[in-house]
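Hi R.,

Quick one: here's the Isopenicillin N synthase-like Fe(2+) 2OG dioxygenase domain-containing protein sequence you asked about.
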Amino acid sequence: MASSTHNQHQLLPNLYTGATTSAPPPTPATNPNNLLSTPDAADALSRLFHRLPPNLSLPSRRSPSSSSTCPPSLSLSSPNDTLSCVSQLGYAQLTDHSVPSELANSAESESLALFDLSQDQKHSLFPKTWPLGYDDDDDELAESFRFEPSCSTELPLASLREFARALEKLGLKIVNDLTNALGVENQNRLCSVVWVSECLPGNKTGGFYPFIIGLQYQIRSQKYSLLSDSGWVSVLPHVDSILVTVGDIAQVWSNGKLKKVRGRPVATVGEENESRCITMSLLITLPAESNVAPLLPKASKDQKEEDDEEENSVGGEERVFHSFDFENYAWRVYHERLLFKDPLDRYRLP
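And here's the predicted structure, written out as tokens:
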């Protein structure tokens, strides 16, 4: 990964240029030849559970905890501090940052105004070009907008763009610190997605899309539910901190060393809440054409050649994950929203 912010931003291409929604990419879940395989049977069961009535009693470990904990504080003073903070839980809060609270509040005001547009305006100003655009087609999810930080639109969104670029800069720094601390070399191109969505009462999911690092600014005292590797947890970050979550792509890159959070954090909203609540997330992720695999260590040429020859080894360690196509995986986790099964399970080596 580039050593400066300028070089890092050169790695950020336009996301999915020319993509359309007319024909979804082929996925393992849509292949009729795989219907009897164990992963697909588990996926079908997960989709069945997802459609169960909301008043059905489920195991308590699947529900967010009623008590909330304060996430550990993340420091960007050194890469090793970053790694030790997020490796065990998959999330942390960044309190020492340069994003002003006035900018976050202005960005929220501009984001709130998006939901007051007419349906025709929402669809015309934010057309669907997977995975970007306006989305209100699924009753299971709240309506949302997904766009690049440099989104070009007729709307005056100067604060929201500046806010997204500030979060993007921090996200790239965290990704760089993590890869340096892990001793691995990242040669992947990166891109960012801004995801603004309305918060509704109940157990609505925050939406699933593969990412490396996710960031959410804590404008006010607000609890969030996270689906971590250890189950649902409830967190209450400090006001004006940034909630940082480690995603599934980072877990694969680290060859299983990092814990992760599935999907975006969900704001806890009660039925009695009268004010409108939204979340503004910035996801550092990969372009559609990417391949996902554990990253090779920063080693000599001979060591890398040995890793290439040894299919189940990376840096002298046993490989934990198969490599897989990013676009197929992204389409699958977004549309199936596997709450009861880790979507990375099918790519784990036995």
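Residues 1-10, 16-23, 27-37, 52-65 have pLDDT under 50 and may be disordered.

Cheers,
M.
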